[in-house]
Amino acid sequence: MPTAGIDHIAMPTANAERLIAFYKKLGFLINNEEEWRSGQTPTFSIQVGDSKINVHPEGHTASLRGPTAVPGCTDICFVWDGTVEECQEMLAGAGAEVIRGPVQRAGGRGRGTTPSLSLYLRDPDENLLEFMTYNV
């Protein structure tokens, strides 16, 4: 059977409250937030289309994770379903600072042959985030 996609990735955070607020401003849904707040579960996740990012708050050590995983170790590229200008407006409205872009990048579509533009920023843990748009 071939690999069909990515179900989830995981990343640690130094400040869960700050991370939740940041990703909500960008329009992401937070899974299990109430259960995490009430102590029913040690983690929460950020929904990304049909995939998710499992977040390990400080103090939670998953038994299966990269041995050197620390806040700020993650580099994620999100696909923005709109124009680069619309993405810039969304990021500005959320108070997110673009540190580079728009720049041309080779993404995953068409095995790296489909034209795209990317914007780069950092989340509160200093993870690198890339927003890629194929609507160029």
Report on this model:
This protein is of the alpha/beta class and 136 residues long. The chain folds into two domains: 8-58, 2,3-Dihydroxybiphenyl 1,2-Dioxygenase, domain 1 (Roll), CATH 3.10.180; 73-136, 2,3-Dihydroxybiphenyl 1,2-Dioxygenase, domain 1. Helices cover 18% and strands 32% of the residues. It is built from three helices and eight strands. Strands 1-4-3-2 form a four-stranded mixed β-sheet. The longest helix has 10 residues, at 16-25. The chain is globular and about 45 Å long. The N and C termini lie far apart (34 Å).
How would you describe this structure in keywords?
4-stranded mixed beta sheet, single chain, alpha/beta, 2,3-Dihydroxybiphenyl 1,2-Dioxygenase, domain 1, 136 residues
Task: Outline the secondary-structure elements.
Blueprint: E1 8-13, H1 16-25, E2 29-31, H2 33-37, E3 44-48, E4 51-57, E5 75-80, H3 84-93, E6 100-104, E7 117-122, E8 128-133
Parallel strand pairs: 1-4, 5-8
Antiparallel strand pairs: 2-3, 3-4, 6-7, 7-8
